[in-house]
Amino acid sequence: MMLEVRGLCASYGDNQALYGLDFALDEGNIVTLLGANGAGKTTTLRALCGMVRLSGEVHFDGQPLLGRATEDIVRLGIAHVPEGRGTFVRMTVEENLQLGAIVRHGRGDIFRDVEQVYAHFPRLKERRAQAAGTLSGGEQQMLAVGRALMLRPRLMLLDEPSFGLAPLIVAELFAILRRVNRETGVAMLIVEQNAALALDMAEHAYLLETGRVVMDAPAAVIGADESIRRAYLGY
Predict the structure, then answer these.
(1) pLDDT digits over 202-219, tens only?
(2) Is 34 helix (H, G, I), strand (E, B) or coil?
């Protein structure tokens, strides 16, 4: 497995948020973490990036991640698209994209990679000289994903990519994510409140409840089980 997590615990000060999570993700796969608010999904992504206090075992391509600085984890090819997008609002679209490549090992071909992002998101190309803070919510989310792609990641961590977006924009964004996965082979670990959408996209799903994995199964199995959907996913 490209990403292997065993016994992952995480806390904010004295408040423990994760209790011994086990999960894995293989090269090129799409996996989703599902659960109610407060289940620990966002904390899990932050833990993988070294942003919270944690213990357990996390290996990426056989290399341990615990104890590494967030910047070093990014350099391994793990890109985090946080909830709230995290764009630099006073910088232009193109400056935001170029910033996404700043820590990667090879900085050649940045112009080509920017043009590739524009191929995925033509709307961003139309706004390349526009300040990111003036974009719509959907455009800012596209920019956040595009900036992550500038890392040339092997794994993308996506936190609530549909949050606050109109249904048509959500459908467009997820169609692009599918295409990126298919064309580039980048693996994706997706946290998403729209469980039906996430299950339709992912190969495997893990259900979290109060910081613990309570179920894992192929996404199609979970999506087809009405009792699971009602008990854990609210639809």
Answers:
(1) 999 999 999 999 999 999
(2) strand
Summarize pLDDT for 44-88 with one digit per residue, the tens. 999 999 999 999 999 999 999 999 999 999 999 999 999 877 889
- Nearest-angstrom CA–CA distance, 8 and 70: 17
Where would I find the H helices in the chain? 41-48, 70-75, 93-99, 110-120, 122-126, 137-149, 167-184, 195-201, 219-224, 226-228
**Gap between the Cα atoms of 53 and 135, Å rounded:** 34
Q: Which two tokens stand for residue 204?
A: 């495997």
| Phi then psi dihedrals of residue 2, to 5 deg | -70, -45
Cβ contact 3:206 at 8 Å = no
The stretch 137-162 carries a mean pLDDT of 96
Q: What does the buried/exposed string (b/e) look like for 215-224 if buried means 16 or more CB atoms within 10 Å of the residue's CB?
A: bbeebeebbe
Distance CA 142, CA 132 (A): 11
The DSSP symbol for 107 reads -
The CA distance from 156 to 134, in Å, is: 25
Count the helix, strand and coil residues of the chain and give each as a percent rounded to the nearest 5: 40, 30, 35
DSSP string, 108-137: TTHHHHHHHHHHH-HHHHHTTTSBGGGS-H
Query: What is the DSSP pairing of strand 53-60 with strand 212-218?
Result: unpaired
Question: What are the tokens at 64?
Answer: 């341990």
How many Å is the Cα radius of gyration of the chain?
17
